[in-house]
Description:
Blueprint: E1 5-7, H1 11-23, E2 28-33, H2 40-44, E3 47-52, H3 63-73, E4 77-79, H4 89-97, E5 101-102, H5 107-114, H6 116-125, H7 141-151
Parallel strand pairs: 1-2, 1-4, 2-3, 4-5
Amino acid sequence: MLRKVLVANRGEIACRVFRTAKKLSIPTVAVYSDPDEKSLHLSLADEAYRIGPAPATSSYLDGQKIIEIAKRSGATAIHPGYGFLSENADFAEYCQREKITFIGPPASAIRAMGSKSRSKEIMTEAKVPIVPGYHGEEQNELYIAEQARKIGFPVLCVD
């Protein structure tokens, strides 16, 4: 059971998480950088903490600051929202080490989905329909042309 959730994001995604948490009677914690100090998401949260100046690297992307605020506020879980820390496998593992629930996929899934070739392999193994393509190591022009004929035209070539 989630006792208190820190949302490590801003804007519409943070607002949505706060509204949903309120419906579920789960207390919430917002974080904000200096330019966001009057943002809507802060009024929807039960608590709000400043995390730093405008650059995201000094605020929303600073996992150590986020974890420190989670501990200080008593948050037992962190929702990363979209972007920022949501696709950061190291941050997901950091939360786990600090005994804070990361509301998102496990680090292993984040890493796998961060690799286009690995994610295609996983989807193929799971029988998920994927767009046909060639992702092999052989880059000889004649071989690539043969693969293109097998896939069917038109094809997109990326160098």
